[in-house]
Amino acid sequence: xxxxxxxxxxxxxxxxxxxxxxxxxxxxxxxxxxxxxxxxxxxxxxxxxxxxxxxxxxxxxxxxxxxxx
Length: 69
Hints:
Layout: H1 2-24, H2 29-61
Helix pairs in contact: 1-2
């Protein structure tokens, strides 16, 4: 689960790096949009689905609570 969190952070920082390059004048507006948007959307959605599956599997593996007092 830690791997998912690190991947999400890394992918979230990728558009920031491209934005900084755009501010420096190394990339055009169209290049920033063309590179950042599709990559960020696809990879973040893929990772969020994987994280949701991992959480779901962990929740369903828990043993039921015993009610004997």
